[in-house]
Amino acid sequence: MRGSVSGMWLLASVISLSLIAAGQSAEYRLSRNVLPSLYNLTINIQGDVTNPGTTFDGEVAITLQATQKDVLQITLHQDSLDISSCLLYKADGLLQQTIATTALKYDQETQQLTVPLAQALTVNVNYTLNFMFSGKVRTDMAGLFSASYLDESGKTKWVLLTQMQRLNARLVFPCFDEPDFKAKFQVHIGRPSGFNAISNTKLIKTTNLGNNRFTDQFDVTPIMSTYLLAFVISEYQARGDVSSFAVVSRPEYYSKTEFSYKVGERALAAYDAEFEQPYKQLGNELLLFASSPRFPHNGMENWGLIIFSDAILVQDPGYTDGWKNKEFTIRIIFHETSHLWFGDSVTFSWWSYFWLNEAFARYYEYFMSHELCPEYQLDQQFVVRQLQMILETDSVGTTQPMTSLESSVQTPSEIANKFSSIAYAKGASVVRMWKNIMGTDNFNKAIRSYLKQHHLGNTIPSDLFAHLKANWPETPTVDLDEFFSDFTEQPGYPMVIVNQTMEKHRFVLTQKRFLVNPEGGGNKSLKYTIPITFATNLKPTFQNMTPGIYLRKINSQINLNSADPLDWIILNMKQSNYYRVLYDTPILSKIHEALSKNGHSSIPVENRAQIVDDLFNFAHAKMLDYADVFKFVEYMSNDVDYIPWYAAYNGLQHVAKRLTPQQLPNFEKYLRDITTAVYTKLGVNWKSLDTVLDVYNRNMQVSWLCKYNNADCNKQVKAIFEGNSEKPSPDYRETFYCAASRSSGYDNVLQLYQKETNSNERDLLWRSASCTRDYRTYYENQILKSSTTVSQKTVGLAQMYQQNPDLITDIYVMLTEDINKLNTALGSWSTTAEVLSDLSDYFTTRDQEKQFSEFVDKNSALFGSAAAQLKTAQTKVNTNLQWAEQRLGPVVNFLASRNGAAGLTVATTLLMMMSSLLSLMLR
Fold this sequence. Notes:
Strand content: 15-25%
Strand order of the largest sheet: 5-4-8-2-1-11-14-13
Number of helices: 30
Mean pLDDT: 94
Radius of gyration: 30 Å
Largest sheet: 8 strands, mixed
Low-confidence stretches: 1-23, 901-923
Number of strands: 30
Structural class: alpha+beta
C-alpha cells in the first residue's frame, strides 16, 4: 500500500526480517475463521473515452461472518492498492469500529492485510467490512488493465478490462483471494459518457450522475471464486441479446462475429444436454463473449462474461476464416464454455488440484467439438496434438504430477507452476482413458452426478473419484484407489515391454517408467496400474477400448496367451491409455509387414501414429537406433493419412535439424520416397473436394518437401504461383507463398506484402517473403535498409535460415561479415546476440562451430553484457554436435546406402534392434 498507509511498509519489512532471522516460513494461506458471503463493489474509472486514465477509485463492502469464537482480527488480501478508509459495521448497519489505516498490518510477501478489531466478532453474525481505496489501471494484463486499438478511421480507442486469475483480484479490491472463499458479488461501474460496461451478470440499472458520468449497476452473481469476477468498459457493440447471450466486440467487427456467435449458441445447447444441468439453472441467466485486442490467454472463463482474444471471436473473410482458424475458434469456445460447469459452478478447492478444471475443459474442447463438428476429426487429432505432445513433456525426470500436496503449492510461483500442460493435456488424456475404460454411459452418469452434488462448491480429486467409482464397470477387477493415484499423484507414465515366446502363442508383458534420460533425475522405480487392450491379426478389435486385464504394480509380468499362433499383436487400442509400448524385434517386424499391406491391415490411424511416435521416442531415449526407426517408417510410402504423418514429422524434425548440408540430399531422397503416395494423392494445388485433414496434410507435406528442396514440389509451386491469380486458402497461404518465395517468386511475394493493407495478411506475407533463397538481396534491402520494425526483422531473419537449412553457413557468414550493420538494423547488441544465438542452434558442423567461436572471441567486447548469451549459445552448439556425432552415424549411413539403390528400399529383413537393451529393460 502507498499514501496514507505508507508507514506500514516499514512494519512489514521488520516483520519479514524477523521471520527470516527466526528461520520461519511465511504463511500464505488465509485462516478460515472469517468467511465472506457478499462483496458490494464499486469501481470508478477516471478520465474520458479519449483518455480513461491510469488510476481508479473503489469501494467495497464485504459481508462476512466469524466461524469461531474470539476472532480479534480479519486477514484478507490486497496488492498495490492505496487504502484510505476501513470501517466495520454491525448487522443492523450501525458502525462498530473505525480502523485507522495506520493500524492496518500488511505483509508484502504474502500480500495479506490484517485488520485489528477492538472487540471479538460474534460467531455466525453478519458484519460488513468496508474499504475505500484507489489503484492503478495496469498495462501488464493483470487485474484491471487497459488495451488500445485503432478503429476504421485510424482513431485510437480504449478498452478497460480485467484478468483476475490467478491471484489478481487483490489488485482490484481487498478480498479473500483464494478459490474456496466463494461469495456473491454485486458490481457497480462508474464510467464517463461514451463508454459502456458489462460484467458477470445482467445490467439492472444505469444512474446519470451528471458531468457526463454514469454508474452501471449489475445483478448479484451466483456464489463464486474471486478469480471469476470480470468487467469490461469499452465502446463495444453486441451481437445478440445482452440480457441472455451475445458476442460483444468492436462495432467494425460486428459482421465478423457471426461464426463465433453461432458456435457459442451450439456449445451452450450441447453442454446443457450433456450435463443435464442447463446453464441458466446454475444461477446466472447471462452469458457474454467479449473480445479484446490484447489478452494474456486465448480465453478466460469468467462466469457470465468470458473474455477472448480478438483472434478467437473475429473471422475476417478471406483472411482468418480458413479451416484452421475456424477449428481454433470452435475448440477455444467449447473449452471456455465447459468451464461454466467445470470451474465456475464446481471449483477446485486449491491450486494444487487445478487439473480438476482444466483436464475436463481440454477434454471437452476436443471431444464435444468433435460431436458437433465431426469434419475436423478432433477425436483423432487429440492423439497426436495432445496425448503424444504431453507424453514427450512428461518423460523428463523433472515433470510434476497432476495432483501436488497442498503444502507444496503455496507461493505465487508454486501456484503458477501448476498452470502447466500437465494440468491441461495430461489431465485430458487421463480423463479420456477413464471415459474409454468406463464406457460413455457410465462416464456421463459419473460426471453428471459429480456436477450436481458439488454445484456452487469446491472439490478435491477424491470427490470426483467417488462418482467415477460408483459408475465403474465391475469387471475386470482393479484397485481403483491405486489406479487413480498412479496417474494423478505420481509423475510420469509407464512403458509396456512386449516379448514373444512359445512359437507366437504367448506374449509376455512387463513395465517400467519411461524416462527420455534415465540419468537426468526422476524416480526410475515407479510402477503404475496399466489397463491392457490389444488387437491381433486374428482379432483386429481396434474399436474395443475396454481393458480385459490390468498390469498391476505388484505383477512382475503378465502373459497373454493364444490357442492359435499370432503373426502380430498391437497394444493400447487407439492409444486410449496413457503409456508407450515397446515391442521386441520379431513382433515389430510383423507389425511393419502388416502396415505395409494395402489398407494397413485395418490398423487405425491412431495406432499407426502411436507406433511411429513411440519408436522415435525410444530412439531419442537411446533404447533404439534412429536408423531402425527410419527403416520402419518406410512403410509410410503407402500411407496417405494426416494423423500418422503428423507423428512421423514430429519425430523426423529432431533428426533433420541436426543433419549437415552434405547429408541433406540423402534425407531429401528418403523423404521423397516415403511421401510417394501422400504426395501423389494431395499434390501441391488446393482442391474444392479436400477434406479438412487433406488441407492440413497438404500444408504439412508441401512445407517439408519444398523446404528440403524436393524438385517436383518447388517446380509445381512455381508453376501454380506464376500461372494462377487465385489466392490460396487462408490455411495454405503461408506455406504456399513461402515455397513460392523460395522457388524464384520472392519479388512477387514481396510486392503482395507491400500492397496488402490487412495487418494479419501483411505479417503472413512478410514471413513468406522471408523464406527466399536470395538471402543477400533480402538482407540488404529488407533488413539493413528497410524501415520495418525490429520485431519484423528478427522474424524475417529467423524465417530465412530456418526455411533454408542448406544455406545456414552462407547466411551466418553474411550476417557476421559486418556485425555493426546488423546491430544498427536491430537497434541493440542484445537483440543482435539473440538472433545469432538462435541461428547457432541450427549449426550442424564443427566448421560452423569454429567460425562462431572465432567470431565470439573477436567481438565479445562489442556485445557487452549480451556476450554472455553468445557464450551460452557456444556451449549449446557443442552439445548439439556431440549428440549428432554420438547418435546419428547409423542413420546417416543408412540414408547414404539407400540413396545408392534404385527406388524405395523395402524392409524385408528383421529390424536391427538391440536385443541386449531389451534384456536390460526386463531386469
